[in-house]
Amino acid sequence: MSIKAFWSALLLVLPLGVQAALPIQHWQTREGAQVYFVESRELPMLDISVDFPAGSARDPSGKSGLAQLTHGLLDQGAGGLTDTAIAHRLADVGAVLAGNFDRDRAGVSLRTLSSAAEKTVALDILARVLQRPDFPQAVIGREKQRLIAAIREAEADPSSVAGKAFYRALYGTHPYAQDEAGEPAAIERLTRGDVQTFYRAHYSAPNAVISLMGDITRAEAEAIAARLAAGLSRSTVVPALPKPVPAAASDKRIAHPSTQSHVLVGAVGVARNDPDFFPLFVGNYVLGGGGFDSRLLKEVRDKRGYAYSAYSYFLPLGEAGPFELGLQTKHEQTDDALKVAQATLRQFIAEGPSEAELTQAKANLTGGFPLRIDSNKKILDYLSTIGFYKLPLDYLDTWVDKVNAVDVAAVKQAFARRIDPDRLVTVVVGGAGAR
Question: Which residues lie across from 204 on neighbouring strands?
Answer without folding.
Answer: 233
